[in-house]
Amino acid sequence: MILIIICVILSFLVGFNISKRSGIQPGYFEKAEAPAYGVGGEEKLAPGLGEEYERYFKELYKEE
Amino acid sequence: MYKRYSILLLIVAFLLSLTGYSQAAQWANPELLLSAKELKKHIGDPQWVILDCRDLKYYAKGHIPGAISLGKRCKKALRDSTSRVFKDISKYERLLGKVGIDNNTHVVVYGEHIKTDTIKDAAVAFWILEYLGHDKVHMLNGGIDAWVNAGYSLTPEPTILPQKRFKARVVKSRYASTEEIVEIATGKKKGVQLIDARTPKEHKGADIRAIKGGHIPNTTINISHKDTFDRSKDPETGKMRDNGFLSPDRVAEFYKTLDKNKRTIAYCQTGTRSTLTYLELRLLGFKDPANYDDSWRVYGSSFENYPVAAPNGPQYYNFAKVNKTLKKLKKKIKELEKKIEELTSKEKE
Predict the structure, then answer these.
(1) Given an 8 Å threshold on Cβ–Cβ distance, is B99 in contact with A60?
(2) Nearest-CA distance A49 → chain B (Å)
(3) ipTM of the complex
(4) Is residue B121 left, alpha or beta, with left meaning phi > 0 and alpha meaning psi from -120 to 50?
(5) Residue pair B52/B68 in contact by the 8 Å Cβ criterion
(6) What's the fold here for domain B30-170?
């Protein structure tokens, strides 16, 4: 019983540490993987524009 | 003898040219409208910003060199989701500053006539910038089509300008509210000219796009915005059609019965087409022009029982007819689905 409790606490701490360092929430699929699980990728504003410009145009409407 | 005739002919030609010159109408504010040739002179000038008012995907394919985009069509970027102007003016200040516009920047707005029908979007940007108190706004006459027709090239390379600081100095008179329009409609406010920029069918209530059809009582004149464009032969169809260019002769003819010294308000369905009317009023030198931003979509759908005028009395949107058509369409879709199912099952067999 004690062994099980120690295992649970340890796995929680390891998981928490990974999550804290990577910024990924447990159970969250990274964007690149998402379409493979049936979730659509982020829609591009204009294909062929390039990442830098895509980011710029999306940032324009973000409130400070 | 021959010499005498030549001199006489020269005098006649000179007099004729003078007559023609004096008869050609001129814009009262010509600096508001630029030709492609005039715009070319300002390419690369840090005090001038060119704003492409089309959707970003068209901008990405090709635009006037150095032009910026707001990432959306101008009428979407500069209005809220109900097509009304932002109530929070600081939103404009942030957006315009972010794209590199300050109070000293000359802004040239442009759209496209045939392919994307965005000359109106450029007119929306023109009106909103003037409403925000910017006094250096210009419109490219004929839009991007004029640029291409002049033989100038386009680029797919986007432009991002350094951020600047824009401070709005709102000119309230350039905006007409529903309250003001109701006062005019009910005769409480007099001496204001109202222009309906919609089509004659919408004006009469034969084409209903709100709960009620018709027009605002005391409307002075109905001038459909498309009629005011110049006309030329369409190279594809060979038929005459509007070409997106504005010329003083043609535009002045439409507004000749109006008094330039009176407050003059333009409206349409969503307050978009009427921004082109606003631009024309500014070009012609009307002293107090405004755009009714709410326009018919709000006025004609209000439960406040605003008065409506139409040749056959106020018209109402026929929901029963629309429901009947929807039912028919649903039935047809079901029939088609059934046919598809039958065909696919036969194919499997």
Answers:
(1) yes
(2) 6
(3) 0.71
(4) alpha
(5) yes
(6) Oxidized Rhodanese; domain 1 (3.40.250)
